[in-house]
Amino acid sequence: MRLKIPTNFRIVRLPCTGKLDLIHVLRSFEKGADGVFAVGCMEGDCHFNQGNFRARKRIEQAAQLLDKVGVGGERVRMYNLSSGEGPLFAQYATEMVELIKKLGPNPIKQMKQKKTDAAAA
Amino acid sequence: MIIAEKKPIEEIIEEVKDFDRILVLGCNECVTVCEAGGKKEVEVLASALRMYFITQGKEKTIGERTLERQCDHEYLEEIRGNIDDYDAVISLACGVGVQFCAEKYLEMPLLPGVNTVCLGANEDRGLWTERCQACGTCVLARTGGICPVSRCAKRVLNGPCGGSTGGKCEISKDTDCAWQLIVDRLKALDKMDDYEKVAPIKDWSTDRAGGPRTVTREDVKI
Ligand code: SF4
Ligand code: SF4
């Protein structure tokens, strides 16, 4: 199956979405990511029972915190699909990229860039 | 263990906004287990503060450190060498740790990053409930191992009161009546005879009523 997916996102593999911690999401934004989406197995299908539920909670925590620090909680999302659903993955990736394009760049990155530009001028 | 809850980030920001170099100081014990002030929470708070101040166009240094305990001299001493690199410390330890740190570093503004709630147990994922109020004279031996001091709203020692209905306390339908639990357990232990005995007047001088408490152990003092 050859599917078209956007090229402007990077995949970080985890053994299970339960490995995802809040700090991983926050650090991505600190390092300049414009958005983060976690893709877990279908709810109820986690090999470790609760990994994807934990991930969902952490994505929710990240969203709340990002809202409060002025980055924007809408930049993070959790999706669930089964490993056989490649087309759905492509669809979610496209959806996410479109959302981020609408939201614009991560304000952290913008502020850092401004500083670098000011220093260079 | 001691149960604490994270303070809202808005409150923390308000407290630290005027400092330029801030150390977020965690504790590896109780607050780590109740997910309020361990290494992970230190990383998260520090990252959130950094992002907040960047979006505000402010330059701040946010340091991260987690000590084995903040309620022991030896561990608190570990930061003596670099505490002067900071203008304020947000301690994510329980109230004990925050105070002990403040006593040690007299001139350093110390701010609590958590609300210390109670002595409790981890009943379920995300659920911590009170079990003891450190009254100083434990009565669990005669109450079937269930504490009427911390778990009965009225601290009744010969209960239940008249408000006990269907196993629940009159303060809320979600709160078990401690005395119902005590009776159930005494029955299970076949010790209902204990229930019939009127409890003697409890010595409350060992509770908070007697002022701040200390434990002195001559047998271990050197
Ligand atoms: S009786 Fe006192 S020491 Fe014993 S569990 Fe209750 S509050 Fe704690
Ligand atoms: S209902 Fe039970 S727990 Fe509540 S105050 Fe009365 S005796 Fe205590």
Secondary-structure map:
The complex is a heterodimer of chains A (121) and B (222).
Chain A: H1 22-30, E1 36-40, H2 51-68, E2 76-80, H3 86-103, H4 107-120
Parallel strand pairs in A: 1-2
Helix pairs in contact in A: 1-2
Chain B: E1 2-6, H1 9-16, E2 21-27, H2 30-33, H3 39-55, E3 61-67, H4 73-76, E4 88-91, H5 95-104, E5 110-112, E6 114-124, E7 127-132, H6 148-151, H7 178-188, H8 192-196
Parallel strand pairs in B: 2-3, 2-4, 4-5
Antiparallel strand pairs in B: 1-6, 6-7
The structure holds iron/sulfur cluster (SF4) (2 copies).
Tally the helices of chain A.
4
Largest sheet of chain A: 2 strands, parallel
The first-to-last residue Cα distance of chain A is 49 Å
**Overall 3D shape of chain A:** globular
What would you say this structure looks like, in words?
Chain A has one domain. Helix content of chain A is 49%, strand content 8%. Chain A has four helices and two strands, in the order H-E-H-E-H-H. A two-stranded parallel sheet of chain A has the order 1-2. The longest helix of chain A has 18 residues, at 51-68. The mean pLDDT of chain A is 94. With 222 residues, chain B is an alpha/beta fold. Helix content of chain B is 28%, strand content 19%. In chain B, the strands form two sheets. In chain B, strands 3-2-4-5 form a four-stranded parallel β-sheet, sandwiched between helices. In chain B, strands 1-6-7 form a three-stranded antiparallel β-sheet. Chain B is elongated, with a radius of gyration of 22 Å. The two termini of chain B are 28 Å apart. Chain A binds chain B through residues 21-23, 26-27, 29-30, 65-66, 68-71, 107-108, 111-112, and chain B through 9-10, 40, 43-44, 47-52, 54-57. The structure holds iron/sulfur cluster (SF4) (2 copies). One iron/sulfur cluster is lined by residues 132-135, 138-140, 147, 149-150 of chain B. One iron/sulfur cluster (SF4) binds next to helix 6 of chain B.
